[in-house]
Amino acid sequence: MHEWALAEAVITAASQYAEKEGLKEVKEVGIKVGELQQIELDILEFALSQLKPASFKDAKFRITIEKAELKCRVCEHKWLFNQQKLDKNTAEAIHFVPEIAHTYIKCPKCGSPDFEILEGRGMWLESIKGVK
Ligand SMILES: [Zn+2]
């Protein structure tokens, strides 16, 4: 259900930006979603279409996924999250609690579970296009 909360946050931020820039109509909103956020994009898109205000009537939402990059704190090896195979239950667990990732993911080089997430968390506005 957090897709609805995220969609609301996107609409709020985009509206504020449009207002600040004096945009009468918003045509395109670029959104970036971190891979570890594991959002149901269908639900997110539906929520956005339901929540958008009048000035967003013709707006397209362009959603791109940012790959998650992890870095081992022990050997400093960097790797991409999607190179590791996780079973479905693990993926579900990470969906709900990104911090739980530390229990399941280990450095592919030295096996240490002590890593940091460099990229791939959260969700943010990338661009907004519109007409003044
Ligand atoms: Zn390592």
Explain what the structure shows.
The protein is built from four helices and six strands. The chain is α+β, with helices and mostly antiparallel strands and 132 residues long. The strands form two sheets. A three-stranded mixed sheet has the order 2-1-6, covered by helices on one side. The protein has a three-stranded antiparallel sheet with strand order 4-3-5, with no helix packed on it. Strand 1 (25-34), helix 2 (41-51) and strand 2 form a beta-alpha-beta unit. Helix 1 (2-21) crosses helix 2 (41-51). Residues 72, 74-75, 77, 107, 109-110, 112 line the site of zinc ion.
Features:
132 residues, 33% helix, 6 strands, 4 helices, alpha+beta, binds zinc ion, three-stranded antiparallel beta sheet, three-stranded mixed beta sheet
